[in-house]
Structure formats: C-alpha cells, structure tokens
Amino acid sequence: MSLAKKLDNLIQVKTRLSEKYARRAEAARSQPLQKSLWRKSICYRRQAEVLQNQRRQLG
C-alpha cells in the first residue's frame, strides 16, 4: 500500500472517530462526560487536519 493510500485511510478513520465522539458528547447527560468526549472529538479532528496537510504535500 502506498503512503498516499495509508494517509487517506488514516484521514478517513480520524474523521469518523471525531464525528463519533461529537455525537456521543451531544447525547451525554453529564457535563464531565460531555467535556471529555468533546476533547476527544477535537483531538481526532486536529489529527485528521495534520494528516490532510501531509497528504497535500505529497501531491
């Protein structure tokens, strides 16, 4: 598998994880749980952005 395909796959996985934790944060009832889930969502979203930048540099 080429590096570009690996990056595309990782971007897709990180984006889906971000969406998953965002949905879970909206559905959570306790504030501490909401905050921790939002943090996870933001973390995965940032990781996806970094990977997208790397992918753009490859061409």
Explain the layout of strands and helices.
Layout: H1 3-27, H2 31-58
Helix pairs in contact: 1-2
Number of helices: 2
**pLDDT < 50 runs, ≥5 residues:** none
Task: Provide the gyration radius in Å.
Answer: 14 Å
The averaged pLDDT comes out at 97
Name the helicity range.
over 70%
Can you tell me the overall shape?
Answer: elongated
As a percent range, the share of strand residues is under 5%
Structural class: mainly alpha
Number of strands: 0
In sequence order, what are the helices and strands, one letter per element?
HH
Termini gap: 16 Å
Largest sheet: none
Written overview of the protein:
The protein has helices spanning 3-27, 31-58. It is mostly helical and 59 residues long. α1 (3-27) packs antiparallel against α2.
Short characterization:
The protein has 59 residues and is mainly α. It contains 2 helices and no strands.
Task: Please give a handful of descriptors for the protein shown.
59 residues, 90% helix
